[in-house]
Amino acid sequence: MSEEFLDHCGISTLGVRAGVHQTAELENSDPLFLTSSFCFESAAHAAAVFAGEATGNVYSRFTNPTVRVFEERLAALEKGEACIATASGMSAILTVMLCLLEAGDHVVSSRSIFGTTTGLLQSLEKFNIHTTFVELTDLGAWARAITPRTRLLFLETPSNPLTEIADIAALAALAHAHPQCLLVVDNCFCTPALQRPLTLGADLVIHSATKYLDGQGRCVGGAIVTSADRVREKFFPFLRAAGPCMSPFNAWVFLKGLETLTLRMRAHCESAGRIAAWLCAQPAVEKVYFPGLKSHPQHALACRQQSGFGGIVSFEVRGGRSAAWQVIDRTRLFSITGNLGDARSIITHPASTTHGRLSGDVKAEMGIGDALMRLSVGLEEVDDLMLDLEQAMAGL
Ligand SMILES: *Cc1c(COP(=O)(O)O)cnc(C)c1O
């Protein structure tokens, strides 16, 4: 497939076709190169590849053909120049931090990010790298937090679990008004099927491929999409030396996931929209958080910035923690797990699990109450999911 032709193709076509490198066997599905090392034609060839005078695979910690197809396909989907795959979403975030920050540098981050990312940023304090956490939707707070040493602005949008939306273009403009300051967007919740932050001015996109890119809850992996220079000069040498590379097997699974990404995201969005609207009409439900609702504070921004509202819906019921736990325990179709972005619908109680380590004060400040539940709406029949929630909420 010629790259020029693909440049003009839509996102579904890129998910199926981008990065394809057919071998001499003329296979029609991406091959899995499950090999740790690669051979050389001769001693002289080995010497040339090791010296960097000839290109070629050496060892799968450096490069692997299956991982490369995943990188090229995800870069095409995100409209980025280059991608580098990592062992997990967290190792993608760690790679960005360690490669782009120096002792004395400063990060401004949204307060509403994945809990482990908060912990990772805090652990950089011992290297004299400090983070200021701000309210995701308060542009003034971001601006006030920036110092001459700020190198990164970091966010997720929609946020987890309250689905607040950040204005990516406005935050990119803010970052670029300061020398050497870059915007990093963790695009895990939307995926490139719904939102492409690089086209809105972001400098780096991070993925936990574990979630919607896989889409069927099988493998752990991550990726960074950004400029080819940054991948080649900063991230590739770090990954090669530090070792958090993506397994070729996982890359192959993620490739199969990318082929159905737009189809799945459309279905997740549609079912989540129907469940959110239905929840609003239930007497036991006090509040529903979903960017597709007209009552959502950033609904207009979500309409502008995203091509769908995502598959995550959060809601609060009357009756506090005991009511929420009752709903969770009574559901039959929802899996009780902290993961998201699976074909199987998932129900989570953030206050006691994903956000359980935060102090009561911090949870209250963030709006994560005891009656809050997060749904990752899967690919089951939406009527079955609503029926299940209805019987689980009976008697509240
Ligand atoms: C899960 C998640 C991560 C971490 O990814 P892993 O693949 O579990 O390491 C980072 N960011 C967000 C938004 C996530 O949901």
How would you describe the overall organization of this protein?
By secondary structure, this protein is an alpha/beta fold. The chain has two domains: 3-259, 3-Layer(aba) Sandwich (Aspartate Aminotransferase, domain 2), CATH 3.40.640; 262-393, Alpha-Beta Complex (Aspartate Aminotransferase, domain 1), CATH 3.90.1150. The chain has 15 helices and twelve strands. It has helices spanning 3-7, 11-17, 43-50, 65-78, 89-100, 115-123, 139-145, 168-176, 228-242, 248-259, 261-280, 299-305, 320-330, 360-366, 382-393, and strands at 82-86, 106-110, 130-134, 150-156, 182-186, 204-208, 222-226, 285-289, 312-317, 335-336, 346-348, 372-376. The strands form two sheets. Strands 1-7-6-5-4-2-3 form a seven-stranded mixed β-sheet, sandwiched between helices. Strand 2, helix 6 (115-123) and strand 3 (130-134) form a beta-alpha-beta unit. Helix 2 runs antiparallel to helix 4, helix 4 (65-78) runs parallel beside helix 10 (248-259) and helix 13 crosses helix 15. The longest helix has 20 residues, at 261-280. It is globular and about 75 Å long.
